[in-house]
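no rush on this but wanted to send it before i forget. theres a chain ive been looking at and ive put its sequence and its fold in token form underneath. please have a look and point out which stretches look like helix strand or loop to you. thanks a lot i owe you, the record is right below:
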Amino acid sequence: MAEAEKQKAITKLVILCFLLAITTLVVLAISYKKNIKQNALLKEQNANIISTNRELQQTQIDLHHAHVKLSRLNANLESEVEKRTEEIVRQNQIITDYANINAHKLRGVLARYIGLINLFEMSETLEEKEEYIYLISQLSNQFEEVIKEISKTLEDDFSIKLEFEEIKKPK
């Protein structure tokens, strides 16, 4: 009997090893399936990360190009602002010159006109009146020259053509 029991024990041991091997294979198969699913999930996530990375790289390239373009535009704008500022300064100088001509030359001639008219009105003799009329006539020529100078300044510097009638000279 000892031999039969030995045989039984060996059979039990073989069955136990067989069950252990089958259990191990089942556990390994389940683990393998989980690994396959996890690997597939990881591959999908990796593909998403690679795609996102490419998009980010393209966005970075696009941003760099936009930055370069904006830098050029900014440089052009600064240049344009500088040119326009120079033009405004030049035009302000022209306006100042025009104002000076207006203030000094035109008012000077006008003041002399007013003075001669007052003297004409106060004159008592025909000779004095004729003299003042002659001086007023001469002053009319000066007045016309000042107006032409002002008009030329405006035409030359602002490209504005002023149309005006010539002051009629007394005969």
